[in-house]
Each structure stands twice: as C-alpha cells, then as structure tokens.
Amino acid sequence: MAQQPSYLVPVSESPASLEAVEIACMLGKQRKARIYAVHVIEVLRSLPLNAGMETEARRGEQLLRRAEEVASHGGCHVEAALLQARDAGQAIVDEARDRGVDTIILGVGYKRIIGAFQIGRTADYVLKNASCQVWVVRQAVRRE
Fold it and tell me: Are 34 and 78 in contact (CB under 8 A)?
C-alpha cells in the first residue's frame, strides 16, 4: 500500500504563501495528503535561539491561523507549527526532512532588486538544499 503523500507549506507575510496553501489543499484533497504549514521566526545570532520573541510569535500565530482559515475554506485541514531558528531556509529544509514530506510548496513574492527579479535568500536555500521536491508558487507581477 502506498504511503500517504504529504506537503510542507512555509507561511510568511507574502500573499504567495497563502496561494501555496490553497494549491496544497487542492492537491491534498485529491490525493488525501497530509499538509503541514510552518512559520519560521528568524532569531538574530546576538540572541539565544530560544529567546522570547512575543511580538514575532503573535504575528506568526496570526499567519498560521490565516493559513488554517484558507485551508478550511478549501475543505482541508493543515497541521500548523511555529518554529524559531537562525535561518528560515535551513529550518524549512530540516522540517521537511524530519517530517518525511514528499513536497515543499513554497510561495514567493515577485521582488525586483536593481531591476532584476530576486527569488530571495530563503527560497534560494530551499531550492538548493531540500532533498524532496520543491514547487514554487510565484506571485503574479503587478502592473504599475
């Protein structure tokens, strides 16, 4: 019997991350997949890793609740987790490995820095280091 598929969706301030939750739910319902949503609070190296970061934790919980609402509206359930780490990319890759997920579904905004599209430090790390599949959901380009 085949193992139940699973997806990890990092949730951030980017609207693209909620689009990634929607996509994970559409796919997840069809395949009866487990869906995990994570938000990573990056802790500065000058602070202990377990530093109490109440403001960031509240914001992270809000983002995860929003992801749960999006999932619920799409008729599925997500298991949400708030993580603290030095680097979000490494935390996402480690969480995917630890949970044994099949696919990371990563939402990225469309950022132009010095005229060129930049995928960002976290997405770059995940794409280079994840041992599972990584699907990128890029936000649409806004027309000025």
Answer: no
Beta pairing class for 116-118 and 111-113: antiparallel
* pTM for the model: 0.88
pLDDT digits (tens, 9 = 90+) for 38-63: 999 987 777 666 777 788 889 999 99
What DSSP assignment string belongs to 77-90? Answer: --EEEEEEES-HHH
- Strand 133-138 with 103-108, pairing: parallel
Parallel/antiparallel/unpaired status of strands 116-118 and 133-138: unpaired
User: In sequence order, which residues have a C-beta less than 8 Å from that of residue 43 and are 6 or more positions away?
Assistant: 49, 51, 53, 84, 85, 86
Between the two ends of the chain, the Cα-to-Cα distance in Å is: 51
Which pLDDT belongs to residue 43? 78
